[in-house]
Design a protein that fits this description.
about 75% helix; about 220 residues
């Protein structure tokens, strides 16, 4: 694990799912993390309070001392996850160096997050029919960051001028999610480093676009 990935894991692991008002409350943190697992597997409608309490290793009554109902827990899970993802992307943006370095930092952070917190990653980025507004908000926020980058890239000359930033950002978010969703089912398919490399190549060169220097034609 490189320095950036270690930093991201440290930041995200330390903050994941801890209530904004009770960040030092380990029980609340367990409930939110357990909620991410159960909601990812069963959805908000299918999840039961007993399932979440059992996953967290606490009594059902304990959950109600922290959250009035499962809907409130779901909102907390989504808000905490959104904040953590955006914080990780901000770290990548601030990484010194070239566009290639920044792109790799972003992809390393995303892969590290997905590998460490798979159920939460899937919950945040899944947008099927009837998806929750909070899930839409998360995807919209991530896409908005990339739109801003692409618009700057078009002005500065490193992004293609014929691409629509909104459409391109959505394509990238979808590609990242679906590749990592597939990878999380069986992590022996590719190493962490290989996943990062594929994401970087697709992001920088596309599927039928420019060939990186030194690659076979």
């Amino acid at each position: 694990m490189n320095i950036f990935s270690a930093k991201v894991i440290c930041v995200w692991s330390g903050d994941l799912a801890k209530g904004r008002r009770e960040q030092k409350d380990e029980t609340r943190a367990k409930l939110v993390r357990a909620g991410s697992v159960v909601f990812a597997a069963k959805g908000i409608e299918g999840a039961r309070i007993g399932d979440i309490a059992r996953e967290a290793g606490v009594a059902m009554g304990t959950l109600y001392t922290h959250f009035p109902d499962k809907e409130a827990l779901f909102v907390e899970v989504m808000r905490a996850g959104k904040d953590l993802v955006l914080a990780g992307l901000a770290i990548a943006q601030q990484t010194p160096g070239s566009r290639e370095v920044k792109d790799r930092a972003a992809m390393e952070g995303v892969v590290a997050f997905a590998g460490e917190f798979g159920p939460l990653f899937r919950l945040l980025l899944s947008r099927g029919a009837g998806s929750d507004p909070m899930q839409r908000e998360v995807v919209d926020s991530i896409a908005a960051i990339r739109v801003t980058e692409l618009q700057a890239g078009q002005r500065d000359g490193w992004a293609r001028s014929d691409l629509d930033p909104q459409a391109t950002a959505r394509c990238e978010v979808g590609a990242v999610f679906h590749l990592l969703d597939w990878w999380l089912d069986d992590r022996s398919r590719l190493s962490d480093e290989a996943v990062v490399e594929q994401l970087c190549l697709i992001r920088r060169f596309g599927v039928e676009g420019l060939i990186p220097d030194g690659a076979a034609s």
